[in-house]
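Page 37, continued from 36.
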């Protein structure tokens, strides 16, 4: 004869049984067996009904520049409704255990971001993403002075180019397709008459 108990409650008296859709959590399963002479014994096992959490996160802005602040937010969830804990890594370095956090001025570095989420039973999952700030194109601009030179003048440049990311710039100057030099500014003594 058989008597099955779940968490102290009698459930079945069959030799075998099935338990559809058990509640998440730890459960104690007990079996009591008895022969026809009344001799009996019992045994028990503890089982854990649990689903792994689902890991995901968002990063805003989605296409960052070097002087943006990056905002990271976990959108992870647990199918069983368990509370989650969070561990964020930048590369191999543990960074924070907050659910959301921010990283100001990421610069041109490439970051490997990893989030590990864990439920109260120790089940975990992780998700990863590579984050790199967009390198914006420099802005090229200059002025030639005087604006209407005459023969015998010295013509010089006023370079107003800049890089929106604050990067150092390198220059190559050309006059009528001929390379002039790589200086930031230049002057040209007594140019020949004509249009350049």
């Amino acid at each position: 004869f058989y008597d099955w108990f779940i968490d102290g409650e009698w459930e079945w008296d069959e030799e075998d049984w099935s338990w559809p859709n058990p509640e998440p959590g730890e459960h104690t399963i007990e079996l009591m067996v008895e022969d026809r002479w009344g001799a009996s014994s019992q045994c028990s096992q503890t089982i854990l009904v649990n689903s792994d959490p689902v890991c995901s996160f968002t990063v805003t802005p989605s296409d960052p520049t070097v002087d943006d602040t990056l905002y990271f937010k976990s959108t992870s969830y647990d199918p069983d409704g368990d509370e989650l804990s969070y561990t964020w890594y930048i590369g191999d370095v543990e960074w924070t255990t907050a659910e959301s956090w921010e990283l100001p001025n990421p610069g041109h570095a490439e970051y490997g971001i990893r989030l590990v989420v864990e439920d109260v039973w120790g089940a975990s999952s992780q998700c990863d993403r590579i984050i790199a700030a967009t390198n914006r194109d420099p802005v090229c601009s200059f002025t030639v002075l005087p604006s209407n030179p005459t023969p015998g003048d010295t013509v010089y440049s006023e370079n107003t180019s800049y890089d929106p990311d604050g990067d150092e710039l390198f220059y190559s100057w050309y006059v009528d397709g001929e390379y002039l030099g790589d200086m930031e500014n230049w002057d040209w003594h007594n140019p020949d008459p004509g249009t350049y």
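The mean pLDDT is 92. Flag for discussion at group meeting. The chain is about 0% helix and 50% strand.
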